[in-house]
């Protein structure tokens, strides 16, 4: 008689295959996910299946020309073909509408969602913040969202593209003609590179704030639609407040983009609000749609009680509609017009 190993699943040990990009950050993120899963599911074997996506292979074509899903399409194809059981994504890199047959299984607790400034090593401790930089200083970023917001507050700075993985970008700021670069805190912190962070940017930054990208700092796990077995396994990793915040952000983006990626920035925070009935936790979402050159912007904010993903969705949608009514459409139309014309304009987030 064969003995059956008694495990938490109540069945034979089995293997789960995980789809991921193969960048050092992506692999680190998968390690973090597996470490969390392994705590609960001791007898499951997790196998990492890294591949290069279009965004990894093509490092020169402007991002929008590569189309939507440049970081995700190949991974979702593998998921659909059952070559992998779930995919680990940066939530920020996922299009707001998923392909048929795919489902956002869960979103994990968020790392710091803010953007940060990293100065060239050779500058030593000469600069502490963006405002310390002289006229004409060069800021590396390929994100129109970042450049457009910073242009508004720091008109003297010059913006240049910088693409590549985190290590490549850090090498470029140190060795090439950049004075600083802007990156997401989350990637640096996960890679143990937080020591390079000189300044955190958010809506309240003195001298000029910045809102982050939709989904920035959160990891999202994508599964085949209705795959209850895998959904059940991943459920233990869900951070519901983060998931609700990201749903609000993604709904905002989905409502605004109308088929084309646009420079939309946001910031969500769970805040306590006092009322006659006592204190209540509410979700505050701030958002900004900005023209490519930073000359025009429409900003807004809403605070609502959110107790479900559907309510998070409608919060994001309402804020988007409010921004459109207050003039965001004019900015979006202008961007879409340039996008449709000859010559590429980058509006994806890098
Ligand atoms: N495609 C770039 C990308 N996608 C997600 C992150 C950061 C990590 C995160 O937001 O979870 C980055 C790098 C960056 O913006 O600095």
Note down, in words, how this protein is organized.
It catalyses: 4 porphobilinogen + H2O = hydroxymethylbilane + 4 NH4(+). There is one protein chain. This protein is of the alpha/beta class and 350 residues long. The protein is 32% helix and 24% strand. The strands form three sheets. Strands 2-1-3-10-4 form a five-stranded mixed β-sheet, sandwiched between helices. A five-stranded mixed β-sheet has the order 7-6-8-5-9, with helices on both faces. It has a three-stranded antiparallel β-sheet with strand order 11-12-13. The protein is globular. The chain starts with 14 loop residues before the first strand and ends in a 10-residue tail after the last helix. It binds the ligand NCc1[nH]cc(CCC(=O)O)c1CC(=O)O. Residues 90, 92-93, 183-184, 186-187, 216-217, 350 line the site of ligand PBG.
**Range of strand content:** 15-25%
Net shape = globular
Q: Please state how the strands of the largest beta sheet are arranged side by side.
A: 2-1-3-10-4
Query: How many helices in DSSP terms?
Result: 9
Tell me briefly what this model is.
The protein is of the alpha/beta class.
């Amino acid at each position: 008689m064969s003995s059956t190993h008694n495990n938490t699943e109540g069945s034979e040990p089995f293997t789960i295959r995980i789809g991921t990009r193969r960048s050092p950050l992506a692999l680190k993120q998968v390690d973090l996910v597996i470490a969390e899963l392994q705590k609960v599911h001791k007898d499951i074997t997790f196998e990492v299946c890294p591949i290069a996506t279009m965004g990894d292979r093509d490092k020169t074509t402007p991002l929008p020309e590569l189309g939507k899903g440049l970081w995700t399409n190949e991974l979702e194809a593998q998921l659909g073909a059952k070559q992998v059981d779930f995919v680990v994504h940066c939530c920020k890199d996922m299009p707001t509408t998923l392909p048929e047959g795919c489902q956002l299984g869960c979103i994990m607790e968020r790392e710091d969602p803010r953007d940060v400034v990293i100065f060239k090593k050779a500058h030593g401790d000469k600069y502490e913040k963006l405002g310390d930089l002289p006229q004409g200083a060069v800021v590396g970023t390929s994100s129109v969202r970042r450049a457009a917001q910073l242009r508004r507050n720091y008109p003297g700075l010059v913006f240049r593209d910088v693409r590549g993985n985190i290590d490549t970008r850090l090498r470029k700021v140190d060795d090439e003609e950049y004075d600083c670069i802007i990156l997401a805190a989350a990637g640096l912190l996960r890679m143990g590179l937080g020591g390079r962070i000189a300044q955190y940017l958010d809506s309240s930054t003195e001298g000029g704030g910045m809102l982050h990208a939709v989904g920035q700092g959160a990891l999202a796990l994508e599964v085949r639609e209705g795959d209850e077995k895998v959904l059940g396994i991943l459920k233990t990793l869900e951070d519901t407040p983060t998931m609700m915040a990201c749903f609000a952000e993604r709904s905002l983006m989905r409502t605004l983009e109308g088929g084309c990626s646009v420079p939309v920035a946001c910031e969500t925070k769970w805040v306590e609000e006092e009322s006659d009935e006592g204190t209540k936790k509410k979700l505050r979402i701030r958002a900004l749609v900005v023209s490519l050159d930073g000359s025009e912007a429409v900003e807004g904010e809403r605070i609502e009680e959110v107790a479900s993903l559907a309510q998070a969705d409608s919060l994001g949608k309402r804020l988007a509609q409010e921004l459109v009514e207050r003039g965001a459409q004019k900015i979006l139309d202008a961007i879409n017009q340039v996008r449709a014309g000859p010559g590429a304009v980058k509006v994806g987030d890098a």
